[in-house]
Write a structure and sequence with these properties.
With about 400 residues, the protein is mostly helical. The protein contains 19 helices and 6 strands. The radius of gyration is 21 Å and the shape is globular.
């Protein structure tokens, strides 16, 4: 492949920013965090990841969807300081897992997270979030708000239309296009407030972003237990993402730089996001998709994209514009996105060819579903609570190890 000039690399970097943009910005909207800080954390996290992995893995890190439910709950109930402590703790779990993988090998660790555990847990994450999506789309007390319903439906129809296009770049950025369509419709319906934009500064964080940015992390048992265990589930997602990325590029990143390094990079990036006030980071399949389409695998382009994301996060007016996006627009996106998360869990089960005629598989999956969906949070003692998702994951992991295999 011919050597690319710097201008071309910048254009390709912008393309990677477009691919990750919708999903990365969506997470703070759903959780109550600041989208500008999320962009900065994505850029900083990507640069940290590349420094840890010798700069040879073409990966972009963005906001993780797995932490949405717990992040929103902790932020609302306990505040940004405790949320920061929980996210930092999740990053620390990644770091510990990287050391464990280095010591014992990835296969032994993966034995604790087989498809019969991971598949149902991923499904539970999506199903637990489904009421949130409908509420954002205007559904409350068994009725829909008419304006919100129209906007959300426009977003859903746009996403569906883009998804059936063949060999189009638009398929890489369906969220971005759908949000643009929904925003335009909402504007003409009078549901967009642009008054704050003129008062916003051009360079620098907005006042609310600065409050989140400067908050001092607090580590409480309830905050840590609510968020940190989710990193154990995302561990399998990380392995899948790195495997896919290596398959696209044609390199074995398990050997060089090693999965322990990619986990360490992910962990340090998430810890940095916690300190800065952003959502937990994870490797992004959207950007791997861009690699597959362009067949340009230069990791330097991903680092350029990271710098662009940081710059966008520091443009004050841009951050305020993001905050003017109506809730109904993000609700329309969430209806499909949260459903897709559940569908990914189902796909995990199908691809593993799990036989549910075996009582062992039925018991593990059924308990994960019931505990994970039915239980919101359990107060263990005092103010310490445990999420239903964390409890379901723990029960699934334990049962997988103690129930005998069907022969």
């Amino acid at each position: 492949m011919e050597k690319l000039n710097f201008q071309t690399k910048i254009v390709l970097g912008i393309q990677h920013v477009l691919a990750m943009f919708g999903a990365t910005v969506l997470v703070p909207f759903l959780t109550g965090l600041n989208p500008s800080i999320a962009l900065i954390c994505a850029g900083v996290g990507t640069l940290i990841f590349h420094s840890v992995t010798k700069g040879i893995v073409p990966v972009f890190l963005g906001s993780s969807f797995a932490f949405i439910g717990a992040t929103a709950l902790v932020l609302k109930a306990q505040g940004i300081e405790i949320l920061k402590g929980g996210i930092i703790s999740a990053g620390l779990v990644y770091v510990v897992m990287s050391l464990v993988v280095l010591k014992f090998g990835v296969e032994r660790i993966k034995s604790f997270f087989p498809p019969v555990v991971v598949g149902p847990i991923i499904m539970v994450i999506g199903l637990r979030l489904s009421p949130v999506a409908l509420n954002m789309a205007g559904y409350s007390n068994n009725t829909f708000n008419t304006d919100s319903l129209i906007i959300a439906l426009a977003v859903v129809i746009t996403m569906i239309s883009i998804s059936i296009l063949k060999k189009s770049f638009f398929r890489l950025v369906p969220i971005l296009i759908s949000v643009a369509v929904g925003y335009t419709i909402a504007y003409f319906m009078g549901d967009v407030d642009l008054t704050k934009i003129s008062d916003a500064r051009w360079i620098g964080l907005s006042d609310d972003a600065w409050v989140s940015f400067t908050a001092i992390p607090k580590f409480t048992l309830s905050g840590v237990l609510a968020i940190a265990p989710i990193a154990l589930v995302v561990f399998i997602e990380h392995i899948g993402d790195i495997t896919t990325n290596g398959a696209v590029v044609g390199k074995d990143f398990f050997k060089d730089p090693g999965i322990h390094r990619t986990l360490l990079g992910d962990g340090l990036a998430t810890m940095a996001a916690g300190f800065l006030g952003g959502p937990a980071n994870t490797t992004y399949g959207e950007n791997t998709g861009v690699l597959a389409v362009t067949k340009v695998y230069d990791p330097a382009i991903l680092r350029i994209a990271a710098c662009i994301a940081i710059i966008l996060g520091l443009i004050g007016k841009f951050g305020i514009i993001l905050q003017t996006i109506p809730t109904a627009v993000m609700g329309g996106v969430s209806i499909i996105l949260f459903g897709m998360i559940a569908a990914v869990g189902a796909r995990t089960i199908v691809e593993a060819k799990l036989d549910f005629s075996h009582s062992r598989n039925l018991i593990i999956a059924s308990l994960i579903f019931v505990l994970g969906i039915a239980i919101g949070d359990i107060t263990i003692w005092g103010t310490v609570s445990l999420s239903g998702l964390a409890l379901a994951a723990f029960v699934g992991i334990v049962l997988n190890k103690i129930l005998p295999e069907d022969k």
